[in-house]
Amino acid sequence: MKRLEIDDSKCIGCGSCVYKDNEHFDFNDSQTASVISNANLDAPELQEAIDYCPTGAISIKDESNNNASQNCQCENCDCENCDCEK
């Protein structure tokens, strides 16, 4: 199962994700971004929001692949597309 995730330690609240894709993102009480939907994860607007995030705080995690990511030594690795040795 895939789900959107925002790394709160990286989000600076610039709003680019909310502007690009308000189906998936909105501001929270701290004025940083939060995920409001995990539906339609193949939407082109979602990929655009991920690409435009200046800090790389947004990712799509595959919860069924947790063991692979735990073994990975790469920083910010999603283990689906990385070049590390698994």
CATH topology: Alpha-Beta Plaits
- The CATH class label is Alpha Beta
Q: Termini distance?
A: 21 Å
Order of helices and strands: EHEEHEH
Name of the CATH architecture: 2-Layer Sandwich
Number of strands: 4
Description:
The protein has 86 residues and is an alpha+beta fold. Helices cover 23% and strands 19% of the residues. It contains 3 helices and 4 strands; from the N terminus they run E-H-E-E-H-E-H. Strands 1-4 form a two-stranded antiparallel sheet. The chain has a two-stranded antiparallel ribbon with strand order 2-3. A hairpin with a 5-residue loop joins strand 2 and strand 3. The protein is globular and about 30 Å long. The relative contact order is 0.23.
Condensed summary:
By secondary structure, the protein is α+β, with helices and mostly antiparallel strands.
How are the SSEs placed, and which strands pair?
Layout lengths: L1 E5 L9 H5 L4 E3 L5 E3 L8 H9 L5 E5 L3 H6 L15
Antiparallel strand pairs: 1-4, 2-3
Summary keywords:
86 residues; alpha+beta; two-stranded antiparallel ribbon; 3 helices; globular
